[in-house]
Write a structure and sequence with these properties.
Length: about 170
Amino acid sequence: MFWWLYYANVTTDFSEKPLVIWLQRGPGASSTGYGKRLQRFFIDNPVGSGFSYVTSSAEFARTNAQIADDLVECMRAFYKQVPQFKNVPVYITSESYGGKMAAEFAFNWYKAEKEGSIESNLKGVSLGDAWISPEDSVMTYAPYLLQTVQDKQLKSLFTPNIYSGFN
């Protein structure tokens, strides 16, 4: 899997700042532009999106479980390549559909740490506006939208004096 790392813009030792893994929205969306005081680690995921590639179509992830397994494997490879990060605190952050991937990724990573198959310092996961339950999300659209404009506000939107400047 393709990944890139941005070090924090500080003069201290990099190991004193946490590493944040950001998983952006739906598969294939960009994850750049996050924070100045954190190490930022971006992963093009799932394989087949961005610069992450596979040599055979049979290797494409077809489930969130496969995506999570690939992400844990990516972290194993990262720690092998950059072992100085093994003790750096890591937080996985995501939004939208990335929340489904991040939750399963964090759980699989946690299990791998407990089993001793990965040496790392996973500290937490943050899900922002996660698309965990599409059915629940869609079923709340109408009630939410119907409550955003109150009757008094609605009437003021259609008073004649609002349009007087356009006559």
